[in-house]
Amino acid sequence: MVRVLVLLVILGVPGSAIGSVVPNACIAGVGLWDSRERVAREWGLPTSISQDGPDTLWHYPKASVLLYRWYKPWQTPRKPIRWIVLVITTTDPHERFKGIGVGSWRSEVRAASDRGCGDKANYCTLASDRTESHSTDVSFKGNRVVELSVSLSSDFDDGAIQYADKRCRAD
Fold it and tell me: What is the pLDDT of residue 22?
């Protein structure tokens, strides 16, 4: 029991920063461009891990993180520089953006979205940056939100190492 407690103190107990969505940047202290080590410090070790092609998906009880092997685009051969967070999703109803989160109605999302939201769409973008490389989205089942996510688009990379938004950090 003591070993387990020491391990949790070293790795950090998974955070439950309620309602801490920074649009286009992070959820509950885990940000886009964060390292695997940072995710483990914020949320602890994942409950399970799966592969999504070359990417790795870390699963938590109410969240997941898609990790991507980042490399310099012009580098041949491609040598991974580090693992980065590409997508963060949550099914925790406490995590909200513009008052929208898991359990919200489609009509509420439509009113809060910068782009509107179709009646039959499976997902809707709540916000995106000017270049549309970062976005904050919700997924629906019927007319209710079942998932909230922040992500980088597939063409986000300008070749420079970037870091998570400073607003994502409590420290």
Answer: 92
